[in-house]
């Protein structure tokens, strides 16, 4: 068994009303596939608890959290999130956030750790949006800062959608540098301002995407000198994605992951990986592309 540690809880695949079940299915299938092929064993998986209210409030507005916790969000706010609110979904978000916090500790021990879910980067300090209610990587970053575990954090968001919530949360926090490379004409249509945004045209190829990343990431690491990296590895950059508008192949998506993970390993920077989005029509394409990130981590780190 490797020392790779992966946050997973059955609630990650919490069933939703018809029309919302498909995006959740991957959270059950990713660990099943990794176990089936022998990339991981059951001992690699850990089940996170529920993040405390105190920790949530280091990131999210008190009134917003109270309305979310007590299921009082308005119909308009629920529509912005994208599905009807219930207590199990709130618990799911709390367990995802705690899973990312726990994964940070394992990453500091072993170089890298994962959350099977997470990447809820559209949640801002006082709003939920785009299937995101609590911003797991922002909550975890603030946990590291609050406990003086980290002093300089780099968030590398390569999901096809801008990390607008993350950008807003850290807009006045110089210890966290937010980098988002995303589709210019994609959701969210009202963008926030990250420390570095690289908007990409529709149809951007893998060659162009990788060239930009190769040029940008080493400079950021040299400039920011992060002591911790959060990586959001959405696979909605694939050409097969229904919502993505970019044109990467699975191999190019894997090379994207390699560039990020290899840079972290080479610079001895612990990295936590949350999975983000993926909406290809065939679930096997989504699961395989996500599993490639885990396979690569085992190859590089263990």
UniProtKB/TrEMBL annotation:
Keywords attached to this Swiss-Prot or TrEMBL record, sorted alphabetically, are: Hydrolase
Q: Which InterPro entries match?
A: HDAC_classIV (IPR044150), HDACs (IPR000286), His_deacetylse_dom (IPR023801), His_deacetylse_dom_sf (IPR037138), Ureohydrolase_dom_sf (IPR023696)
Q: Which GO terms describe its biological process?
A: epigenetic regulation of gene expression
Enumerate the Gene3D superfamilies for this protein: Histone deacetylase domain (3.40.800.20)
Molecular-function annotations in GO: histone deacetylase activity; hydrolase activity
Q: Which Pfam families match?
A: Hist_deacetyl
Report the family membership.
Answer: Belongs to the histone deacetylase family.
Supply the name of the protein: Acetoin utilization deacetylase AcuC-like enzyme
Protein species of origin: Mucilaginibacter yixingensis
Q: What is the lineage of its organism?
A: Bacteria, Pseudomonadati, Bacteroidota, Sphingobacteriia, Sphingobacteriales
